[in-house]
């Protein structure tokens, strides 16, 4: 029997969503347990992730209820580490290509999404940073895409990672959610650019990402929209998801 996997996650967390997509792609059998990132249970910090962040995974050990983690399981954290772990645990899922150059390309795309795109996106709606920062990174990522298909042709962890960000960005812009007093039409103006001639390839890529069964089965747009709307009415809530 395969070693048990328990994923600690939250619907709002883009990092966690990427890991959920990868597990779905792998057809993994796993338990899912929701952690409120703003109100973490003490046992989660003391027994699963000392940093207190989701996503986190317990791997192996006895089959126990998620809120009673066993000291015998391995505790793993950091979304990009978890994505690599899932890739290696389920080699048949092909979450990274065999070709070394393509593997490096997937990792580079993922790295830029993590270190550049995420901060630019957070900066836009949390702090009102110029939207051009976000557009410039999206252009950079768009230029790395092949004419059709995913980042390195077949689906990889690079696609899982960015799907979690781009899907949440849509919610933010479609609902004009921001903490910095945007004009009423700012979200609509941003979407107009994203749907216009500057981002034709990215728009097609997004459509392909969102049609993937692993994405559809892990994303409830209506529920997440309501959750995000709530965050914008709660001081401090935006900083911790
Ligand atoms: N670098 C981490 C970031 C994870 C992260 O920031 N998770 C947020 C939820 S989206 C969290 O747990 N926030 C609660 C906290 O930081 O205390 C990763 O990639 O896994």
UniProtKB/TrEMBL annotation:
Listed GO MF terms: transferase activity
Domain (GST N-terminal): residue spans on this chain: 3-94
Keyword Transferase: yes
Protein name: Glutathione S-transferase C-terminal-like protein
Domain of life: Eukaryota
Transmembrane stretches, start-end: none
Keyword RNA-binding assigned: no
Gene3D superfamilies reported in the protein's UniProt record: 1.20.1050.10, Glutaredoxin (3.40.30.10)
Keyword terms of this UniProt record: Transferase
Protein's organism: Obba rivulosa
GO cellular component terms attached to this protein's record: cytoplasm
Xref: InterPro entries: Glutathione-S-Trfase_C_sf, Glutathione_S-Trfase, Glutathione_S-Trfase_N, GST_Omega/HSP26, Thioredoxin-like_sf
Pfam families (alphabetical): GST_N_3
């Amino acid at each position: 029997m395969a070693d048990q996997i328990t994923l600690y996650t939250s619907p709002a967390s883009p990092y966690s969503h990427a890991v959920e997509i990868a597990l779905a792609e792998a057809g993994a059998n796993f338990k899912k347990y929701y952690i409120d990132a703003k109100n973490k249970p003490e046992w989660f910090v003391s027994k699963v992730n000392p940093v207190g962040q989701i996503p986190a995974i317990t791997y192996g050990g006895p089959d126990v209820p998620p809120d009673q983690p066993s000291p015998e399981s391995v505790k793993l954290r950091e979304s990009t580490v978890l994505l690599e772990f899932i890739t290696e645990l389920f080699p048949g899922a092909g979450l990274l290509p065999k070709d070394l150059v393509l593997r490096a390309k997937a990792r580079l795309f993922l790295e830029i999404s993590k270190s550049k795109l995420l901060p630019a996106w957070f900066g836009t709606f949390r702090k009102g940073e110029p939207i051009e920062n976000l557009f410039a990174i999206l252009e950079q990522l768009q230029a790395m895409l092949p004419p059709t298909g995913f980042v390195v042709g077949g689906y990889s962890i690079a696609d899982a990672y960015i799907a979690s960000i781009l899907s949440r960005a849509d919610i933010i812009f479609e609902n004009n959610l921001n903490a910095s007093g945007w004009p009423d039409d700012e979200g609509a103006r941003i979407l107009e650019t994203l749907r216009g001639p500057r981002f034709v390839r990215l728009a097609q890529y997004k459509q392909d990402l969102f049609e993937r069964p692993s994405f559809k089965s892990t994303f409830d747009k209506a529920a997440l929209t309501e959750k995000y709307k709530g965050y914008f009415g709660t001081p401090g809530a935006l900083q911790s998801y």
